[in-house]
Amino acid sequence: MKKIIIIGAGGHGQVVADALLLMKEAEPVAFLDENPALIGTEVLGIPVPGGNSYLSKIEHDGVVLALGNNALRKRIFEELTKAGENLFTVIHPSAIISPSVKIGAGCMILAGAVINTGAEIKDNTIINTNSTIEHHNMIGPHAHIAPGSTLGGEVTVGEESMVGIGATVLPRVIIGNKAMLGAGSTATRKIPDGVTAAGMPAKRLKF
Ligand SMILES: CC(C)(COP(=O)(O)OP(=O)(O)OC[C@H]1O[C@@H](n2cnc3c(N)ncnc32)[C@H](O)[C@@H]1OP(=O)(O)O)[C@@H](O)C(=O)NCCC(=O)NCCS
């Protein structure tokens, strides 16, 4: 049984822990979290001894970064990879994943997610509850596909981008890097790098 440390004991971390508890080959041994209110407590029966400095003090085979903020998750992923840590991919047993799918390191594939033929999920990406990644999607590193979203065939999602809860991306549409598609929105054409778009069809938000 691989011993896995979960970084982040918040809501998302607890969802990731639930998935990990159901995996046959791995188990959560600790949460690490900088929140003083959590340090010294147990969350879901899993100890929270302290923040990230505890990584070297606890025996483990892998780490998963249960942090919703894509930029923060990317930074810590790069630091830990450089330090030689094994970034572990958590897959909830109820996820349906085609055998042809490629999944990178440190990903979180959560309950009810469907990932179809030929899709590629790069490192440190969250494929959240009940989302559908259709055939031949390319989901970039450090991205987050939020719960209940649906991506048609051959969609590309760039690095550090987010597809909001319940959003839809039409087939072959490109979501650029560090882009955001709002909750419940429908992307009918490309969302450029760094742009937040929302609505149906999704339009660039004015700030
Ligand atoms: C798109 C989003 C990032 C915009 O957030 P924001 O920058 O704080 O924008 P605001 O809430 O100030 O809204 C700006 C305008 O966009 C509209 N808007 C915001 N989100 C929208 C959405 N999802 N769909 C349609 N319109 C939206 C607002 O009504 C507002 O319109 P107005 O200027 O006419 O009043 C945010 O609303 C969103 O959808 N986030 C996704 C959250 C999510 O899915 N999280 C997953 C967690 S697991």
From TrEMBL:
InterPro entries assigned to the protein according to its UniProt record, in alphabetical order: AcTrfase_PglD-like, GMPPB_C, Hexapep_transf_CS, PglD_N, Trans_hexapeptide_repeat, Trimer_LpxA-like_sf
One example GO MF annotation: acyltransferase activity
Domain PglD N-terminal, first and last residues per copy: 3-80
Residues that coordinate or bind substrate: 68
Pfam families: GMPPB_C (PF25087), PglD_N (PF17836)
Alphabetical list of SUPFAM superfamilies matching this protein: Trimeric LpxA-like enzymes
Tagged with keyword Chloroplast: no
Recorded superkingdom: Bacteria
Key words, A-Z: Acyltransferase, Repeat, Transferase
Limits of the Mannose-1-phosphate guanyltransferase C-terminal domain: 90-176
Ligand binding (acetyl-CoA): 144, 165
Family: Belongs to the transferase hexapeptide repeat family.
Protein name: Sugar O-acyltransferase, sialic acid O-acetyltransferase NeuD family
Organism of this sequence: Maridesulfovibrio ferrireducens
